[in-house]
Amino acid sequence: MRRRHFLKALAAVTAAAAAGLPVVFPARDPLEAMRALGRTYLELHPEEASAARAWQVSLAEAGETGMRGHTARHARLDLEDGEVVTVDGWVLPRSLALTCSALALA
Amino acid sequence: MFIDLRTLDDGSVLEADICIVGAGPAGISMARSLIGTSIDVLVIESGDMDYDDATQALYRGESVGVPYFGLEDARLRFFGGSSNHWDNWCGEFQPIDFQQRSWVPFSGWPFGPEELEPWYDLARPICSLGPRRKNAEIWDKLNVEPIVLDESRLKFHFWEIATPTRFGEVYREELRKAPNIRVLLNANATEVVSDAAAHKVESVELVTFNGHKARVKARHFVLACGAIENARLMLASDRIEPHGIGNRRDVVGRFFMEHPRDRIGSLATSDPFHLIDMFRPGWFGEHVFCPSITVPAEKTKAEQILNTRLQLLYVTDETSMATMRRFAQSIEAGRVPDRLAEGLWDLIQGTDITAYNLYRRAVHNRPMVPKPDGVQQVYFLCQAEQAPNPDSRITLSDRRDALGSRLPVLDWRLGELDKRTLQVQGKLLGGELARLGLGLFQFDPWLREGGTSWSPSMVGGYHQMGTTRMSDDERTGVVDADCKVHGLDNLYVAGSSVYPTGSNINPTLTLVALALRLCDHLKQRITERV
């Protein structure tokens, strides 16, 4: 998938995933906010870089139509399992942090 | 009977079976429970029946550690003690609070919760509380559907709130009429004097502002002056033991604890009203219950954290609710509300929410809520358990008060575990709120960092504890399981200064329960002539 398409798809995915939570990130540009969160997450947890790259691949494999379900499903599972991480003070399901990281790496 | 020491002859010597130093909730509860017995009781109170600036100034001190309230503002020194400014938020300690927790140094009480339960039963009505209730019953009565927490991670725990019980007012007449109880007012204890071997207390020295001195001789002495003053009096009593009476192991004054209260973070949510409504204190008969969130014991063990509670609060720009409350208080007090026109304008501006709140109160007996679109922020406040820390302590200054006693110096310290607990608990909270689709939680900046520093807005709960802590081992405690000072046959301590750990709940109910238990012990000793 070309980078432009990936970014577009990812933006849609993350917006949809976030829409599952009644939340609006505190930034005018949600995409940039997600990217910033991803960068912060990777700075705090450099050991997650390989997981983020793998996540990037799995998102790409899911394709534009499957990305939404993929991220939302994993986010739900994370929350059920208590798999949450703290990024810039936000408590997020790890999958969402990985999605942000994938965006930052793209 | 009440006696003003200033009216007695200088040099008077008074005698009693039990001398209780301090007429706050602990001292008054003990005296009450001895009414009608053959035991002659003398209660020593520094103040009079009402607040007095000069007496209150005896509570001044220095603070050199984590910023704390002025010591003269953190407690009250007249009959009834600090119950005179008590809001009566109560609760019982939970079983985990009594346990020795390997991850909490110096934790563990000499007994378990079952030992205190019958004394809680007796203490509850003294603090104007009703019977113990289960959570399901409370939610049902509050007419609230709680969010369904994963109970392996978080659970609800309620504060119980009764009408403030001013011990000095409520129980004054009982004590006045009791033939075996004398309350000595304006009597400032300056020293506890032991025999030469430091095995037994012989007297407590008293002084008044008009220069009268007196001495109390008793078979048993109980210090019930609060956690700062109990330690201060013991440290200052250095005539026989150079480091203070009962302080051979240098434990007196150490392990000062509070309940740090601070914002931990806020919630980004599209539906603040649901949570605000659920977390508001609500009525159950004559009593009020306020929900809070704690971590189950097993989870605290798994995460190696303390037992801390979180309360949901909010910021609103809408003023009609505050105006309604102000008007209600004025009307109840028989006064015309201040700023009447301004207040009426507020109510007119907020007619819809005012009407809704009146409906809630009248029809559903539910507390007031803010106008949803006026809510600017929903946030969580902690009332934290503090890990016992020997370096957090009371010592004595070289400066002296108006009666010549050395002032206390508070060096309050917080540690890594205290802060890490909030980081873990906030994460658990954030995960649960997200799982339930209620919003995203964001930590306040001070908690995003490690270390031990707290935010500048952190305060205590006016809950001083731990300075004469209880332990079977005199190397780690000042008093034993009976609240008797190690090494001294007839000196006891009552109050929250004996807590080895302080839980996350306000301390008064537990200290009353412990005082009643101590009283029972003393009755047995006196009856058996031990």
UniProtKB/TrEMBL annotation, chain A:
<keyword id="KW-0732">Signal</keyword>
<protein>
    <recommendedName>
        <fullName>Twin-arginine translocation signal domain-containing protein</fullName>
    </recommendedName>
</protein>
<feature type="signal peptide">
    <location>
        <begin position="1"/>
        <end position="19"/>
    </location>
</feature>
<dbReference type="InterPro" id="IPR019546">
    <property type="entry name" value="TAT_signal_bac_arc"/>
</dbReference>
<dbReference type="InterPro" id="IPR006311">
    <property type="entry name" value="TAT_signal"/>
</dbReference>
From TrEMBL, chain B:
<keyword id="KW-0285">Flavoprotein</keyword>
<dbReference type="Pfam" id="PF05199">
    <property type="entry name" value="GMC_oxred_C"/>
</dbReference>
<feature type="domain" description="Glucose-methanol-choline oxidoreductase C-terminal">
    <location>
        <begin position="388"/>
        <end position="515"/>
    </location>
</feature>
<keyword id="KW-0274">FAD</keyword>
<keyword id="KW-0560">Oxidoreductase</keyword>
<dbReference type="InterPro" id="IPR051473">
    <property type="entry name" value="P2Ox-like"/>
</dbReference>
<comment type="similarity">
    <text>Belongs to the GMC oxidoreductase family.</text>
</comment>
<dbReference type="GO" id="GO:0016614">
    <property type="term" value="F:oxidoreductase activity, acting on CH-OH group of donors"/>
</dbReference>
<dbReference type="InterPro" id="IPR006076">
    <property type="entry name" value="FAD-dep_OxRdtase"/>
</dbReference>
<feature type="domain" description="FAD dependent oxidoreductase">
    <location>
        <begin position="17"/>
        <end position="229"/>
    </location>
</feature>
<dbReference type="InterPro" id="IPR007867">
    <property type="entry name" value="GMC_OxRtase_C"/>
</dbReference>
<dbReference type="InterPro" id="IPR036188">
    <property type="entry name" value="FAD/NAD-bd_sf"/>
</dbReference>
<protein>
    <submittedName>
        <fullName>Dehydrogenase</fullName>
    </submittedName>
</protein>
<dbReference type="Pfam" id="PF01266">
    <property type="entry name" value="DAO"/>
</dbReference>
